[in-house]
Specification:
The structure is a single chain. By secondary structure, the protein is mainly alpha-helical. Helices cover 78% and strands 3% of the residues. A two-stranded antiparallel ribbon has the order 1-2. The N and C termini lie far apart (43 Å). The relative contact order is 0.13.
Length: 262
């Protein structure tokens, strides 16, 4: 427990410090988190980290993470992120032929989905922070409120299992409690932060963030159970890997970004 608390304090302080600072240091952090998250998924599948297909997937992840303003500045005018991604996907599919199907279509699909899942999740982490620090902190605090509420209310009142085949400890009562805590935090933040949205809209956003954050957690639990592992990695002692800590965040931030730019 002491190790878990110490890791949480140090990692949390570093993350929040870079969030507040923003700019290129936060961008580098996002790239680091995204690439580590990608490699955690590759290890689950037991693919060679330094194989041609894994490196192509890493490049695809980097393309997905890269902000548009950065890609526009380094790529020719006629070529964008979409075109680069398509070429990398075609190379992955071609590799199935080169290896005579020892690297299968299923393996290629896994790499593409992993790259997009992690890459776009962290891409929108950067884009949302770029919109403004308060726009970034709102979903972050809502997710933390959901996790805390679901844990404590589920622990004290939980009786009905939410999805026992995937996550046996989660309960319906805890899930509802997490949503209620998210709404309370959204109401508080709407009065504290200077966001350009009504309280009603922020409450609706918080409910969606809470629901999709819990879904992101279940998705993480589902593929860990499928691959027979406890944690996605060991980078954070007492906490697991990057995906164990950022599963809800990267699942919800693309949705929050879309809701905030509509």
């Amino acid at each position: 427990m002491k190790q878990r608390i110490l890791t949480g304090v140090i990692a949390g302080a570093l993350f929040l410090g870079l969030v507040i600072f923003g700019d290129w240091p936060f961008g580098l952090l996002v790239f680091a988190l995204g690439t580590i998250g990608y490699y955690e998924l590759i290890r689950m599948k037991k693919l060679n980290l330094f194989s041609a297909q894994s490196v192509l997937g890493l490049l695809l992840t980097c393309v997905a993470i890269t902000p548009k303003q950065v890609s526009d500045s380094i790529l020719p005018v006629q070529i964008g992120k979409t075109e680069v991604a398509i070429v990398l996907i075609l190379l992955l599919l071609s590799y199935t032929v080169i290896t005579k199907n020892t690297f299968t279509f299923e393996d290629a699909s896994f790499i593409v989905l992993s790259s997009f899942y992690v890459g776009f999740g962290f891409h929108f982490m950067y884009e949302l922070r770029n919109m403004g620090i308060e726009d970034f902190f709102f979903p972050l605090f809502v997710i933390w409120a959901t996790d805390s509420g679901a844990y404590f209310i589920g622990k004290s009142m939980g009786k009905s299992k939410l999805w026992p085949d995937i996550s046996p400890n989660k309960t319906i009562e805890g899930s509802i409690g997490g949503i209620l805590c998210a709404v309370v935090v959204a109401i508080i933040l709407s009065n504290v932060l200077t966001l350009d949205y009504s309280m009603l809209y922020l409450i609706l956003v918080s409910i969606l963030v809470s629901i999709f954050g819990q879904l992101g957690d279940l998705v993480q639990s589902a593929y860990k159970r499928y691959y027979g592992i406890k944690d996605s990695g060991k980078l954070l002692p007492g906490h697991g890997g990057i995906l164990d800590r950022f599963d809800s965040i990267i699942f919800t931030l693309p949705i929050v970004y879309l809701l905030f730019v509509i």
